[in-house]
Design brief:
7 strands; 84 residues; 1 helix; single chain
C-alpha cells in the first residue's frame, strides 16, 4: 500500500508491504525505511481503513495509507500479533 509515514514535523512517502512473515516500509529516505518481523511487533492498530500504527519495543510508526487496509489483512495481523 502506498503510504505516508507521519513524523513529529512533516513526514515521508513510501510503500507498506505486509506478508505472513514481515512488514516492510520501503522509502527513498534510508533513515525511515524499516523491516519488521511479525514476531517483533508488540502492538498495532488502525483508526480506520486508511490508518495503520505499528509498535515494537523500540519505536512506533504511524502511517496514513493511500489505499484501503483490507479487513482480511487486519484480521491476519491481529491473529499473529495477539495470538494466545
Amino acid at each position: 500500500l502506498p503510504a505516508r509515514h507521519r513524523h513529529s514535523i512533516g513526514g515521508c512517502e513510501g510503500v507498506v508491504r505486509i506478508s505472513a512473515a514481515a512488514i516492510v516500509y520501503a522509502t527513498e529516505n534510508a533513515r525511515d525505511a524499516r523491516l519488521w518481523r511479525i514476531g517483533d511487533i508488540r502492538s498495532f492498530g488502525a483508526a480506520g481503513p486508511y490508518d495503520l500504527r505499528l509498535a515494537t519495543e523500540a519505536e512506533t510508526f504511524n502511517f496514513d495509507l493511500k489505499g484501503v487496509l483490507k479487513r482480511e489483512v487486519y484480521d491476519h495481523l491481529w491473529q499473529v500479533v495477539y495470538k494466545p
